[in-house]
Design goal:
One of its GO terms (molecular function) is metalloaminopeptidase activity. Keywords: Aminopeptidase, Hydrolase, Manganese, Metal-binding, Protease. The protein is of the alpha+beta class. It folds into 3 domains: 31 residues; 202 residues, Creatine Amidinohydrolase, Chain A, domain 1 (3-Layer(aba) Sandwich), CATH 3.40.350; 261 residues, Creatinase/methionine aminopeptidase superfamily (Creatine Amidinohydrolase). Helices cover 37% and strands 18% of the residues. The chain is built from 14 helices and 21 strands. α12 crosses α13. The longest helix is centred in the middle third of the chain and has 24 residues. The chain starts with 9 loop residues before the first helix and ends with a helix. The relative contact order is 0.10. Bound molecules: manganese (II) ion (MN). Manganese (II) ion (MN) binds next to loops. Manganese (II) ion binds next to loops.
């Protein structure tokens, strides 16, 4: 669509009128927003939603929750009225470039996205939190890129201060260029306040160096804290709407990986399995893969983050694939290991079944009051025992010594929190009690590099990992990626159908 609606001359309006008569489906609303909206993308969003599946009210609820937590902080700090005012600054991501004029795919800073749903780069959310009659009150301000016809011609539309409120429900929207002026005015209005800003790891270098760090350096604040831990404390437990989105993303990931398994054949290039996964996720509605997938044939599976994906997978080899997608801001993360020939060898099946037993046992531990760390300890013990049965670890080991040796066999954790990010809410401890509404991955592995001569020869050069995404509920673990087969017989049956 090449017509501008900003032109105010009669001629332009006349042209627009003609255009709309020719293409009546294209209403003027098409040109209002810098991201999908219910008016322009009814196939993605329902009325009242800011991002697919998440309503304006839910975003407001999240900001409200954060304001309450931050306000409660000063009540606990006993400084009384002096520190009742808080200024929270949460910047959005900038566009980053691969080379001159070639941008990387833009991905919004997750914390800003969680609190606003706003998808444009170089934006900032500011919350003014105060207290009236002993109750927390707050106002949200969203700073957005200024309308700029020339830039929009190249980069696409911006919502601007006029339309950002309609999109997000945040009434106070200002141009990002006015952030500095706004901060000065805040200082005039608030003599004493606490500042909440991630100064140690700024997500937007330019905004930080240009405006925010200058503001911090004035040292007009009483204290400065990082708000991100608080935001992640809210993010870690998913709402009903979020659970629906996680289920959608995990379903797509599981179905897509099943298609990849079916597509594989002896001699296949790892890169082709990557491409197949990307395609199968996107045609099911995902915007992109959640991370560069690991597609590792044979011994390469022993490099945990192998992403070169440029070798051929030979007939006798297993292929380990760790991949997931991002769908409407929520991700999946699945791993399967399968024999590219379609049939496990005896030795492959022995190792595979050992990992599968451990994985199922660990999934059973995904209940309230357990924790990722405690499941990890359990995993080490079970991997140790399985490896002893296989003759991979000496039989005389037990207890902590056995777990230490198991750590060499599986050098990574049992899993991580999952949500908007793959390693979601990474500031949250793995020792937290699991609660209904949390989502975790369970991904034990046994890695047996070909150059480790202490391993029985028949097992050398194998790496097996099985990973599912698991929702914690009040009635136990719910595996969200179960559509992708993991029983060895089911895998062989699937591959036989190729
Ligand atoms: Mn994972």
């Amino acid at each position: 669509m090449a017509l501008s609606v900003r032109g105010s001359t009669l001629k332009t309006l006349w042209k627009l009128n003609g255009f709309l008569k020719t293409f009546p489906a294209c209403s003027i609303a098409v040109r209002l927003f810098g991201q999908p909206a219910p008016q322009t993308h009814p196939h993605l969003l329902n009325t009242g939603e800011v991002t697919p599946g998440i309503s304006k009210e839910e975003f407001e609820f999240r900001r409200n929750k954060l304001a309450n937590i931050i306000s409660a902080h000063d009540a606990a700090s006993t400084r009384g009225d002096e520190s009742k005012n808080h200024l929270v600054i949460i910047p959005g991501a900038p566009v980053t470039y691969m080379s001159t004029d070639v941008p990387y795919v833009f991905r919004q800073n997750t914390d800003l996205l969680y609190l606003t749903g706003f998808q444009e780069p170089n934006s900032v959310l500011v919350l003014e939190v105060g207290r009236e009659n002993k109750k927390p009150v707050y106002t949200s301000f969203l700073f957005v890129p200024k309308k700029d016809e020339k830039r929009e011609l190249w980069e696409g539309l911006r919502s601007g201060v006029e339309n950002a409120p309609k999109l997000t429900g945040i009434e106070n929207c200002q141009n990002i260029d006015d952030l500095e002026k706004y901060l000065e005015s805040y200082l005039r209005r608030n003599r004493i306040f606490t500042l909440w800003c991630d100064y140690a790891r700024p997500v937007n270098r330019e905004l930080h160096d240009g405006v925010i760090s200058k503001f911090i350096q004035q040292q007009r604040h009483l204290n400065i804290y990082n708000p991100i831990r608080r935001v992640q404390g809210i993010r870690i437990k998913k709402s009903e709407a979020e659970i629906r989105l996680v289920k959608q993303s995990t379903k797509i990931g599981a179905q897509a990986l099943t298609e990849v398994m079916k597509y594989s054949y002896p001699g296949v290039n790892e890169a082709h399995l990557y491409a197949k996964m990307d395609f199968e996720c996107r045609v099911r509605g995902a915007e992109m893969l959640a991370y560069p997938p690991v597609v590792a044939g044979g011994n390469r599976a022993n490099t945990i983050h192998y992403i070169s994906n440029n070798q051929l997978v030979h007939d006798s080899e297993l292929v380990l694939m760790d991949a997931g997608c991002e769908c409407h801001g929520y991700v999946s993360d699945v791993t399967r290991t399968w024999p590219v020939s379609g049939k496990f060898t005896e030795a492959q099946r022995e190792v595979y079944e050992a990992v599968l037993r451990v994985q199922k046992q660990c999934i059973q531990c995904c209940v309230a009051k357990s924790s990722l760390d405690s499941i990890f300890q359990y995993m080490l013990k079970q991997i140790g025992l399985e490896c002893q049965k296989l003759g991979i670890l000496p039989r005389h080991l037990y207890g902590a010594e056995l777990s230490n040796q198991a750590r060499m066999i599986c050098p990574h954790h049992i899993g991580h929190y999952l949500g908007m990010d793959v390693h979601d809410t990474s500031l949250m401890s793995c020792s937290l009690d699991l609660e209904p509404g949390m989502v975790v991955t369970i991904e034990p592995g046994i890695y047996l590099p070909e150059n480790n001569l202490s391993i029985p020869e028949k097992y050398r050069g194998m790496g097996v990992r099985i990973e599912d995404d698991v929702l914690i509920t009040s009635h136990g673990p719910e595996v969200l990626t179960s559509l992708c087969p993991k029983e060895p017989d089911d895998i062989e049956a699937l591959l036989k159908s190729r």
